[in-house]
Design a protein that fits this description.
- Strands 1-2-3-5-6-9 form a six-stranded mixed β-sheet, covered by helices on one side.
- It is globular.
- It has one domain (about 5-145): Dam replacing family, catalytic PD-(D/E)XK domain (PvuII Endonuclease, Chain A, 3-Layer(aba) Sandwich).
- The relative contact order is 0.18.
- Strand 5 and strand 6 (about 100-105) form a beta hairpin.
- The protein has helices spanning about 5-20, 75-80, and strands at about 30-35, 45, 50-60, 70-75, 90-95, 100-105, 115, 130-135, 145.
- The two termini are about 30 Å apart.
- The chain has about 150 residues and is an alpha+beta fold.
- The protein is built from two helices and nine strands; from the N terminus they run H-E-E-E-E-H-E-E-E-E-E.
Length: about 150
């Protein structure tokens, strides 16, 4: 059974696949979900191979990005940043009545400062030492485009 956070993530990925065209090849209905736990990407265009990350979050207001969004594992993200590899980001903001908006941030508009490492999990945690990160969306809010 999926957790509330997992269900929210699946909802966001499904909305991007259903509502968004591929930004690279401009084809409709070619974005598809990648398997769960694929590192740093959630959707791929089955025509041109375009990859993107999708993050979903709950909010009361749908007309703006949240200040921060929880990311995933810091290690893979840091390695990609050191190699100057950034994935485009879709942010699906879900309201209290399941209405939603979709924002898009291109890879070339991202900067290292928007990725903030979190404190590693404690020694007693089930996944001791694991470290996540937070997207600081305030630093790039003027660069994101609202698609829906």
């Amino acid at each position: 059974m999926a957790t509330v956070r997992q269900a929210l993530g699946t909802f966001g990925e499904d909305r991007v696949v259903r509502d968004c065209d591929c930004p690279r090849c401009k084809r409709e209905k070619t974005l598809v979900r990648l398997p769960p736990n694929f590192k740093c990407a959630d959707v791929i265009c089955d025509f041109c191979g375009y990859l993107a990350q999708v993050k979903a979050c709950s909010a009361k207001r749908l007309d703006r990005l949240p200040k921060t969004i929880l990311g995933a594992a810091w290690g893979p993200q840091l390695e990609r940043m050191q190699a100057a590899i950034y994935f485009p980001l879709y942010v699906v903001v879900v309201g209290p009545t399941a209405d939603y908006s979709i924002f898009y941030l291109a890879a070339d508009l991202q900067e290292p400062e928007m990725f903030k490492p979190r404190k590693p999990l404690s020694e007693t945690a089930r996944r001791a030492g694991w470290q996540g990160f937070i997207y600081d969306m305030e630093s790039v809010e003027d660069r994101a485009v609202r698609l829906r």
